[in-house]
Amino acid sequence: xxxxxxxxxxxxxxxxxxxxxxxxxxxxxxxxxxxxxxxxxxxxxxxxxxxxxxxxxxxxxxxxxxxxxxxxxxxxxxxxxxxxxxxxxxxxxxxxxxxxxxxxxxxxxxxxxxxxxxxxxxxxxxxxxxxxxxxxxxxxxxxxxxxxxxxxxxxxxxxxxxxxxxxxxxxxxxxxxxxxxxxxxxxxxxxxxxxxxxxxxxxxxxxxxxxxxxxxxxxxxxxxxxxxxxxxxxxxxxxxxxxxxxxxxxxxxxxxxxxxxxxxx
Length: 265
Known about the structure:
By secondary structure, this protein is of the alpha+beta class. It has helices at 57-70, 136-141, 200-205, 228-237, 251-259; strands at residues 7-11, 17-22, 27-30, 35-38, 42-48, 76-82, 88-93, 98-104, 111-114, 119-123, 127-132, 147-152, 156-162, 165-170, 175-178, 183-187, 191-196, 211-216, 219-224. It is built from five helices and 19 strands.
């Protein structure tokens, strides 16, 4: 194997974290901000890109890191290397309620395509790159633009899905229509395109957006019930306007203020 062979265990239900066990000189790479905890003798190091192209020279490393800018990610990732003698653990937490999905790339024919904010961490040696859309409609209206993230190699990678996870096995020619933001990722043989909802009433009053994604098999598709964009939208919609909450001015609102310790009237 080219990628490091790591063991792991996923803990929790709503707010999960993945604990990765590293043998001596094994390493895992992760996005900034996902680190939770680690044992002693694990060395943390900031690297250009994903660390999968250490033998390609300076220009190769810069090009690999530069591609991450196109996906909205940092130029750098963090590598965690076990420099001790025995097995050590390092853990990474999910960014919001949902599920952590382990992806064994050796079982996915070496490639998995995912939303650009879904990647959590992977065994060192897994390449974290970009997947360009060859279709104008998909690029303009796919929710993630022309670019998605691709994970390549033969090691383990971990992605995060918001809310409840649905895994669909599509037969050849089988089509699944999905809200564009609800896609977590899919295997490389799945054909992905964007379709217009159609109809004046659907377009104006449907409230579900103008486009949805069509995923055509064969292949495996992972769907999330709570995209981060939907979660953020709900939070922003509930933010008090002008410093007043929705219950303010009502009897229940006053009682709530008292219970919260807010005695300003």
